[in-house]
């Protein structure tokens, strides 16, 4: 009896930039199980020459629509500017092509909602998003712990992520960088989408946000380069998110306080989990002031109140993208559940744009009954003022 032939998804790469080039390399080297490099599409003639040299057997198209219609690909990944993610995903899915969209899912919620609705109407095609940080063992382990309920309900969470230092030269590389019309924002749409996704993946989606953003604070750009935001998860649970691109030293620290413990993650590597012996309110009610004094003077065995677990994780940089690509191929080939369904991308887009809208208007923004039309109107005002790019609809 002959063995069943291995299934291989022929992936088309739309945009052979840094990210697309990395994907082409690992796929062509056979590092992604169940996937081969089907074709490449890019409007830049220089990319055609580069592709011909590196991947001479792989078809190249200067029009991604032609690639979708060629029969050379079963799926695509959209490594293109953020504004194009939704549009290209809709087009590909409409042609029966499985799609892995890059983060963020889009710039404004209206386009992402349209994409999600279209994908839902075409369940025969796989729709995923490149949230590769969801494969990081640091966060997958925490997700399991939080979901188990062992630490109780969330009370507060804070993430300071300022390891995104970018010099002025970074922004000067391309005219579209950190512009409203070309990129749709600054640190919130370019550098921090992974943390915005992870934060909500672990803590749940916030219901409201109030934010202070600095636009062109320490860089000669139009968009945000520093963010301080306070979110409301409902039922008294709050959170704080801070990010910037002007901190050369940088900090990456996530804290999550629960009824019966606390999680602290430093540098996305070192995890400290403190478990209370009883819920905090019970300890508060039962401990006398003499007990409290003994605890803080070091005269009581702290294990009577809490235990501390520390764990250091090794870096898995580079492997995470491979894991998502492999998972995407497995979903197409045999229905393996996705690491991140494409529809989940709207959460990060809504939160990021909610932060921007809060800063523009000076008010708290409702993320449940989100004012999508108002955000788009405010965004278009800024695009029009730049005078470099078309407004969006």
Automatic annotation (TrEMBL):
This protein's record includes keyword Glycoprotein: no
Domain Gfo/Idh/MocA-like oxidoreductase N-terminal span(s) in chain numbering: 10-123
The UniProt record lists the keyword Mitochondrion: no
Pfam family name, one: GFO_IDH_MocA
InterPro entries the UniProt entry points to: Gfo/Idh/MocA-like_OxRdtase_N, Gfo/Idh/MocA_Oxidoreductase, GFO_IDH_MocA-like_dom, NAD(P)-bd_dom_sf
UniProt keyword terms in alphabetical order: NAD
Residue ranges occupied by any GFO/IDH/MocA-like oxidoreductase domain in the UniProt entry: 140-263
Superkingdom of the organism of origin: Bacteria
Protein name per its UniProtKB record: Dehydrogenase
Species of provenance: Brachybacterium fresconis
């Amino acid at each position: 009896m002959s063995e069943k032939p291995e299934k291989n998804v022929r992936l088309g790469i739309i945009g052979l930039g840094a990210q697309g080039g990395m994907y082409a390399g690992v796929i062509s080297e056979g590092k992604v199980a169940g996937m081969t490099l089907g074709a490449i599409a890019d409007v830049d003639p220089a990319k055609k020459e580069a592709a011909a040299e590196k991947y001479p057997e792989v078809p190249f198209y200067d029009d991604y629509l032609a690639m979708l219609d060629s029969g050379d690909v079963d799926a695509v990944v959209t490594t293109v500017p953020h504004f194009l993610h939704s549009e290209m995903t809709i087009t590909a899915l409409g042609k029966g092509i499985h799609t892995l969209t890059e983060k963020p899912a889009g710039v404004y919620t209206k386009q992402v909602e349209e994409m999600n609705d279209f994908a839902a109407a075409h369940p025969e095609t796989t729709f995923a998003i490149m949230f590769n940080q969801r494969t990081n063992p640091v966060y997958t382990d925490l997700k399991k712990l939080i979901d188990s309920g062992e630490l109780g309900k969330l009370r507060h969470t804070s993430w300071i992520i300022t390891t995104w230092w970018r010099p002025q030269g970074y922004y000067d590389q391309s005219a579209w960088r950190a512009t409203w019309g070309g990129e749709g924002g600054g640190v919130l749409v370019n550098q921090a989408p992974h943390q915005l996704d992870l934060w909500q993946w672990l803590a749940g989606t916030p219901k409201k946000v109030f934010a202070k953003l600095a636009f062109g604070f320490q860089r000669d750009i139009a968009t945000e380069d520093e963010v301080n935001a306070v979110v409301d998860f409902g039922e008294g649970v709050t959170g704080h998110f801070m990010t910037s691109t002007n901190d050369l030293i940088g900090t990456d620290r996530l804290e999550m306080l629960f009824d019966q413990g606390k999680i602290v993650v430093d540098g996305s590597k070192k995890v400290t989990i403190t478990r209370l012996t009883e819920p905090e309110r019970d300890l508060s009610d039962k401990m006398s002031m003499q007990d409290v004094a003994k605890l803080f003077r070091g005269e009581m065995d702290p294990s009577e109140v809490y235990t501390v677990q520390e764990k250091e994780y090794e870096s898995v940089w580079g492997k995470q993208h491979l894991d998502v690509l492999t998972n995407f191929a497995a979903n197409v080939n045999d229905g393996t559940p996705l690491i991140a369904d494409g529809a989940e991308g709207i959460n990060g887009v809504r939160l990021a744009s909610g932060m921007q809208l809060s800063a523009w208007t000076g008010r708290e923004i409702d993320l449940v009954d989100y004012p999508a039309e108002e955000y788009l109107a405010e965004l278009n005002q800024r695009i029009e003022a730049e005078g470099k790019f078309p407004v969006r609809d």
